[in-house]
Amino acid sequence: xxxxxxxxxxxxxxxxxxxxxxxxxxxxxxxxxxxxxxxxxxxxxxxxxxxxxxxxxxxxxxxxxxxxxxxxxxxxxxxxxxxxxxxxxxxxxxxxxxxxxxxxxxxxxxxxxxxxxxxxxxxxxxxxxxxxxxxxxxxxxxxxxxxxxxxxxxxxxxxxxxxxxxxxxxxxxxxxxxxxxxxxxxxxxxxxxxxxxxxxxxxxxxxxxxxxxxxxxxxxxxxxxxxxxxxxxxxxxxxxxxxxxxxxxxxxxxxxxxxxxxxxxxxxxxxxxxxxxxxxxxxxxxxxxxxxxxxxxxxxxxxxxxxxxxxxxxxxxxxxxxxxxxxxxxxxxxxxxxxxxxxxxxxxxxxxxxxxxxxxxxxxxxxxxxxxxxxxxxxxxxxxxxxxxxxxxxxxxxxxxxxxxxxxxxxxxxxxxxxxxxxxxxxxxxxxxxxxxxxxxxxxxxxxxxxxxxxxxxxxxxxxxxxxxxxxxxx
Amino acid sequence: xxxxxxxxxxxxxxxxxxxxxxxxxxxxxxxxxxxxxxxxxxxxxxxxxxxxxxxxxxxxxxxxxxxxxxxxxxxxxxxxxxxxxxxxxxxxxxxxxxxxxxxxxxxxxxxxxxxxxxxxxxxxxxxxxxxxxxxxxxxxxxxxxxxxxxxxxxxxxxxxxxxxxxxxxxxxxxxxxxxxxxxxxxxxxxxxxxxxxxxxxxxxxxxxxxxxxxxxxxxxxxxxxxxxxxxxxxxxxxxxxxxxxxxxxxxxxxxxxxxxxxxxxxxxxxxxxxxxxxxxxxxxxxxxxxxxxxxxxxxxxxxxxxxxxxxxxxxxxxxxxxxxxxxxxxxxxxxxxxxxxxxxxxxxxxxxxxxxxxxxxxxxxxxxxxxxxxxxxxxxxxxxxxxxxxxxxxxxxxxxxxxxxxxxxxxxxxxxxxxxxxxxxxxxxxxxxxxxxxxxxxxxxxxxxxxxxxxxxxxxxxxxxxxxxxxxxxxxxxxxxxxxxxxxxxxxxxxxxxxxxxxxxxxxxxxxxxxxxxxxxxxxxxxxxxxxxxxxxxxxxxxxxxxxxxxxxxxxxxxxxxxxxxxxxxxxxxxxxxxxxxxxxxxxxxxxxxxxxxxxxxxxx
Lengths: 475, 605
Fold this sequence. Notes:
The structure holds 2 protein chains of 2 kinds. In chain A, a hairpin with a 2-residue loop joins strand 1 and strand 2 (102-108). Chain A folds into 2 domains: 7-182 and 341-471, no CATH class; 199-320. Helix content of chain A is 70%, strand content 3%. Chain A has a 3-stranded antiparallel sheet, covered by helices on one side. Chain A is mostly helical. Chain B is of the alpha+beta class. Chain B folds into 2 domains: 45-233, Penicillin-binding protein 2a (Domain 2) (Alpha-Beta Complex); 237-278 and 295-595, DD-peptidase/beta-lactamase superfamily (Beta-lactamase). Chain B is built from 20 helices and 18 strands. Chain B has helices at residues 7-32, 86-93, 97-110, 124-133, 156-159, 167-172, 186-190, 192-195, 237-246, 283-292, 301-304, 314-323, 355-361, 364-377, 381-394, 416-423, 447-458, 494-506, 562-579, 587-595; strands at residues 45-50, 57-58, 64-76, 116-122, 140-150, 162-164, 181-183, 200-206, 212-215, 231-233, 252-258, 263-270, 462-464, 469-472, 484-486, 522-528, 536-543, 550-556. In chain B, strands 2, 3, 4, 5, 10 and 14 form a 6-stranded mixed sheet that branches. In chain B, strands 12-11-18-17-16 form a 5-stranded antiparallel sheet. Chain B has a 3-stranded antiparallel sheet with strand order 1-8-9, with no helix packed on it. In chain B, a hairpin with a 6-residue loop joins strand 17 (536-543) and strand 18. The termini of chain B are far apart. Chains A and B meet through helix 9, helix 16, helix 17 and helix 18 of A and helix 1 of B.
């Protein structure tokens, strides 16, 4: 058992090690992404790799200082940090500088600061502080409301800056709530609504409806493995389809396939619902309700999108979801990114030998698309190691969080894990085309002082809390 | 210790699951999928932007005015360049060795990895030879572009020209990339978004010799270019050709409008240039030459030159006074010829006379009295002036007409405050500004405004904003060009004035050069005072009197009197437009106008 009072002995060096490796790998790849054969010096501060060295040095210093500060400081000043960040987020709306259509930067001299980045650890602290107060009960309406306000206040302010990516990060706190006892059903429904929203816009209606029908039928089958009811339900849908297809054929009402499918799904769903009511099949009833809701929701989303939103707003959402087919637009980014990663092959082209990720073939190659450089120059071997390191870090963080004795430290620890995870999942998912293009950085990898510092602060406050876990009595 | 600690396994499971999905995805992308294997050797895929052909431009009778010819750009990707026969390339492309080296350096400075254009607009003949040898020049490749070609050497200022985008275009519209072409002036600029089409993108595989081996994925990822929309201009190219011919060796302009639609039939300015001069590799040199030309052929007089309208303005003053009911058909003013005050009359005619003959004879004293009568109706001079000025503005004078080609100026029509500043408030009156009564003084009217004002008279009280577009393929011409603008004068007042204009052409001695047998043309001559030399010759007219087909304004700089040059030239153009040819008994007028040389008067006639 480690000694109580020795800070350095109680720090989780494994996490620190993974952190250092990731930061180092990140820098190597930024160097490569910006590398110019004709003029190079590692310490050239006019280049991004030179600047990033400064950011890294400063980040290490910040980490060191954080470790020196007493644990109570973070607990005591949690609300203060939160308030300060909210203040900065409001301030940036008025005095910020606009970069890429989002007004989220303070430019002080040649130095840019993004308050949204620092909102993450501040919100995590505030959440941990609030949820660890004595007598706190998550199930209470008032608690949920307060938590909602804590999370959505920064989200709202960041959305006002037009920075959709950074705002989405805060949804990752839902996972923390889940760990702290939020009903899985709530989580399920939120996820369902988000998925429905995205899919009903991304997929063509026909595909979406067929997918929905198939999934529902499968769920039916799994929940009630009796073939008799199942066949009857399938029969309802088939009959409804025949009805609408026939209608479309005979009256030539100009029904489009998606209208026929929507009608069939609604009618079939209602028939299945009535059937389950009469047969007193409770689970069937639930599924049918969810299903009808899903179809209606999707139709509403489509309608709202086409008829209510302005073209500008549509473009924003299209851009976010990567629907644009313009080869020089967003689709271009993902395509180039996939080409870069895919061309790396098993072992990669070697350090500094990448061609696709240099000189703006891949846009934002040193920030949001830095993973392309890894993929191109280090191949599958490199990407495998990076993904592995990240997953290791997340698992380690969850284990650390679970061993905390104070609720504050545990909640904060989970927050760190899920925020980092969200960035990881969205960023890498985006570069390999599994996720829509949402511009958020890859933790410790992407170029940029604000994001590196914010992730460092986020992580090291937790390491500091963890180092003094033995000071607390079990709660 | 915590009731929900089991959920940590769910969360860890979720993290690991996402990690596994990513690893599977990466494995498929990097190891299994052969599509991207192709890229394991460097840069074997080449994106070639497909430039669409610009839309064609036709004249109102369907004659092709502007079309496209192929040209090729040579591009270089510095990183791929190996030693090559510099001399051969230089000779073929007709550039010097140092020039080539300079361009290579620029390309390297831009990017070692991305292709940049090194020689632009190579003609097809050279390209045919180059393409054969291109395998010897690693790192070089070509792309095809289109250049404009003009079937007629006229209408340069209407059609405009196409040039490379400048940084502010790139900033304004993200469609453009460095090196793209954009309409810089005229129709090419106004209707750029219709003409340009949509760029496409083709992906090609190239071998180690840098030769295209075929399309990538069978062209699945290609986006075809979409050809630009064709336009029909309202210009009548026959009339335009004739107008520019008549303007040769003169400074001046012709604007002809179809009154019933506002369509511009001809818009000529002289001196001018051949639009073909601003195309291709010679463009830069030619542009510099035109810019340095002391005759200033790049200056579009029809839209930008401001002259006093002279006596052509009398028609408007009479109309304004009739609308104000300060004169009517029974009004007579006497004229004492050269002894008249405050403005003398240089024309011999009977006295006193009414408004019809006042216009016919262009009587200055009548117009002075008419002008003064408007002022007298109102308590203050400034008040009367403002009412008069409003009438002038209603005819589109003193403000931009917002026609559909760029560069138009607003002319000048001072506000009352201008005179207040000069003479002091309340210390000036109709007498002070009497020059305005006969179209001189502070007035500045552009030829297009004069033609438009004439069209408003021809229409008996309204005009359509003049425009050079007639039809857009798959598009609509803007509504603002199809809306009537009313001049605010009752229709009944026009007939007597028009009668005066017809008599001016048919019954005065001065206008005998301008009479067209069989066509009832109504016109008014003018002389614009020119402080720098001989006065300018001005004429406006429309014909036929009933159901007018054409309204025209002609300015001939230093042409002395309206009747000397402007009126005969206008009559020839009207005759040409309405009858399609010049009658034999008027051939001598045509010859005289064609031969007249006002640029270099020393030449024998």
